[in-house]
Amino acid sequence: TRSDVWQSVGLDPSGFKTSAAWIREHAGKRRVEVGARIILSGKPDADLEQVKQYQEAGAEHICAYFGKRVEDFVPGMRSFAREIMPALSSAR
């Protein structure tokens, strides 16, 4: 089944929740997946909490931004893969 995708940029979890509800309400019969583009800090505990807040607000997917420079995004991606993804998987 095909669905459309809406991705927020720059919304906090509360703003995301409100906007996602509006999108779903106005989608008619279309299935719209809602997600958020977020900037992660590279601090596993804070990043995990941020992702969970968006999940609780109804995000079905997260597009994580780890930074512009290799020195920023490679450690951030590794941390996400090692520490955050397993914590999210075990929470289901």
Task: Please describe the topology of this protein.
Layout lengths: L3 E6 L3 H13 L6 E8 L4 H13 L4 E5 L4 H21 L2
Helix pairs in contact: 2-3
What this model shows, in words?
By secondary structure, the chain is an alpha/beta fold. Helices cover 51% and strands 21% of the residues. It has 3 helices and 3 strands. The chain has helices at 13-25, 44-56, 70-90; strands spanning 4-9, 32-39, 61-65. It has a 3-stranded parallel sheet. The longest helix is centred in the C-terminal third of the chain and has 21 residues, at 70-90. The protein is elongated. The model has no long low-confidence stretch (mean pLDDT 91).
Average pLDDT reading: 91
Biggest sheet, in brief? 3 strands, parallel
Strand content: 15-25%
Strand/helix succession = EHEHEH
